Amino acid sequence: MKNFKASFRSYLNKLKFISGNNPKVMIYPKEAIKHYIPPQHKAVLIISCDLELIWAWRFAKQLNCDLEKAKEISGRERENVPLIIGLCEKFNIPITWAIVGHLLLKGCYKESGIAHKDLTRPGHFENKYWKFSSGDWFDNDPCCNWEEAKEWYAPDLIEKIKASRTNHEIACHSFSHIDCREEFCADRILRQEVKKCKSAASLYGIELKSFVFPGNFIGNLAVLKDEGFNSYRSEKDILGFPEKDEYGLWRVPTTDSIELSPYNWSFDYYVKRYKIIIERAIKYQRLCHFWFHPSLPRDFLEPFFISLFELINNSRKELYVTTMRDYCMFLESNATERQSNV
Which one of 239, 304, 312, 333 counts the least CB within 10 Å of its CB? Predict the structure, then answer.
């Protein structure tokens, strides 16, 4: 019975995909499309990657909050990041790396026995993905030199991304992977986290302009505006375009996540599925935005991204391949030009 239900859900998912309802192609006036796509291209493609190491998994319900399992996943991420960087260089594919701010540190220490004493902690909470039910938010932070606890820090990976020949973007993913929604996060908590991220990023010469909410839980947008961000990622599963929200921030929608399905799809089907999505983006002249975690199993990640990047590269003349930051700069430039012509 269980296998039948899984097969039926897989069938429905594929049917919804084939019918064009997932991802949904948004409708726009024909005249509006030219403002979202550079004239020499037919579609826009963005890939964003959530680099979190242990910070995303220490309270993960799917792991029963098992810290050792969280360390295993962070180790897999560490091994995969240099591979991803290398493939990006080979095919010249820039990525928006949404990085947990603590990973930018080369180490940290306790003050009066407290880790990151300057930060206000979230209270205990439970959401769809995480369960934080006891202790202090930073109890597991080792507060040491990065080489002693590489699952908690990643300055070496940041330097690899920065040194790459590909023009990647480093975006903000909060400092400690918090749920940013107002019911769990007072605005002062996010403000302090963002300031900490900006301070750490500045030591690398990085200006943070894009924000990716941990768990895709969106909240406290006024803080982002106040702190100088111009965009954030929104999970909508559409082929569409960014829109400005009430704070003047670009809300950049996603099209699909790159992850293993619970339905045991074949590798060939994955490749075919994402190829069709790219073809639809080109056909309908839309933004295609894929996102993923680098914790994907290596035996899937490597051949899949080689196939995906080859597909993108073969469509290079039609696709404007860019980052969230650079795409929003293009949108702002277009908006300014339109205003000046009025």
Answer: 333
Distance CA 184, CA 163 (A): 37
**Could you report the per-residue pLDDT of 198-219, keeping only the tens digit for each?**
999 999 999 999 999 999 999 9
277 or 10, greater pLDDT: 277
What pLDDT score was predicted for residue 342? 40
Report which DSSP code applies to 229: -
Residue holding tokens 């400092």? 175
**Cα gap 282→265, rounded to integer Å:** 25
d(CA 243, CA 253): 9
Q: Domains of the chain (ranges plus CATH)? A: 14-340 (3.20.20.370)
Q: Which of 309, 291, 337, 307 is nearest to 51 (CA)?
A: 291
pLDDT at 263 over 50: yes
Task: Say if pTM beats, i.e. exceeds, 0.90.
Answer: yes
Bridge partners, residue 297, by sequence: none
Instruction: Report the alpha-carbon distance of residue 284 to residue 96 in Å, rounded.
Output: 24
The strand pair at 238-239 and 319-322 is best described as: unpaired
Q: What is the pLDDT of residue 236?
A: 84
- Cα separations (Å) of 275 from 130, 258, 304, 311? 33, 12, 11, 7
- The Cα–Cα gap between 151 and 295 comes to 12
Alpha helices, H only, the chain: 2-18, 30-33, 67-91, 155-163, 187-202, 221-226, 267-284, 298-314, 324-340
For the record, the structure tokens of 78 come out as 């560490």
DSSP per-residue codes, 63-131: GTT-HHHHHHHHHHHHHHHHHHHHHHHHHT---EEEE-GGGG-SB--EETTEETTTSPPPPSEE-SSBE
CB atoms within 10 A of CB 199: 12
